[in-house]
Amino acid sequence: MAVETDESGWEVDPDDEWGVAVITTVGRQLKLRREAAGMRAGEFGVAVGYGEDLVYKVEGGKRIPRQEYLDRADEVLGAGGLISAAWEDVKKVRYPKRVRELGKLEANAVEIALYECHIIPGLLQTREHARAVIGAAQPPYSPDDVERMVAARLARQSVFERSPAPALSFVLEEGPLRRPIGGTMVWREQLERLLEVGRLHNVVLQVMRTNCDTHSGLDGRIELLKFPDGTAVGRSDGAFNSRAIAEPKHLRILELRYGTIRAQALSPGESLAFIEQLLGET
């Protein structure tokens, strides 16, 4: 059996208290069961197909074990499914804390409005497009971290599967739609995804053309989320020091800016036609 290296684990963010607690508890239980079975770490590593160093890091709460690791450990230690069941807790903390928090807000929102100026929003990205965007970062992430971040980004897209469906509004800049991130095939797949999402009954997707001579979104990204209880939260790159705000008077400013941007952009029908045109040019 090939032994997988340390790279196959995920690092635990020391500032993520909940994540640290979960992974430390799981690691401790794995160590106790291994020792009760009379197996040394190296022997256990060979049996499950992972390196000894990774075994120590998982047991020490320094690495997030993958589901395959827990399943193999369960089989080797004869835990009868108890170790495999730990995945239900582990999977809740496998993504970075800030992504989990954003995903939770989006999952509870009844309305999501987003203006994005430099990239295609994460909620709309395909897997390969997300991988290309994240993989282009400098300094570069490790391949394993890239995959972790891609998985986290795609997990947020469960918002499209909710019932009842939230109302979603997106305004995208023309520039990122023309940039062939990841190559022609990845680019085409991304444009096709935008058309697919843009035709959903609960989605309004608009494009801001570069030849628009009036633009109220030059300060940067704007996001607004509204919740069932009537509360809301917003964030803007160019207002309130980019912090999340919930005060009604501040939210009204962001709503005004977003509404103005929507009025300046192409209509939803014109936007889909424009994306179809771009797709035809690829």
Please outline what is shown here.
By secondary structure, the protein is α/β, with parallel strands linked by helices. It has twelve helices and seven strands. Helix 2 (41-48) crosses helix 3 (52-59), helix 7 crosses helix 8 (143-155) and helix 10 packs antiparallel against helix 12 (268-281).
**In order across it, which strands form the biggest sheet?**
5-4-3-6-7
The chain-level mean pLDDT equals: 87
- Strand percent estimate: 5-15%
Helical segment count:
12
Tell how many strands the DSSP assignment holds.
Answer: 7
The helix content, as a percent range, equals 40-55%
- Ranges where pLDDT stays below 50 over 5 or more residues in a row are 5-9
Main sheet summary: 5 strands, mixed
Class computed from helices, strands and strand pairing: alpha/beta
Q: What is the distance, rounded to the nearest whole angstrom, between the alpha carbons of the first and last residues?
A: 45 Å
The H/E string reads EHHHEHHHEHHEHHEEEHH
What's the overall geometry?
A: elongated
Structure description:
This protein is α/β, with parallel strands linked by helices. 48% of the residues lie in helices and 12% in strands. It has helices at residues 17-36, 41-48, 52-59, 67-77, 87-90, 97-108, 127-135, 143-155, 174-178, 184-198, 248-264, 268-281; strands at 10-11, 63-64, 111-116, 167-173, 203-208, 222-226, 232-236. Helix 7 (127-135) crosses helix 8 and helix 10 runs antiparallel to helix 12 (268-281). InterPro entries: Cro/C1-type_HTH, DUF5753, Lambda_DNA-bd_dom_sf. Residues 29-84 form the HTH cro/C1-type domain. It holds the Pfam family DUF5753. This is Helix-turn-helix transcriptional regulator.
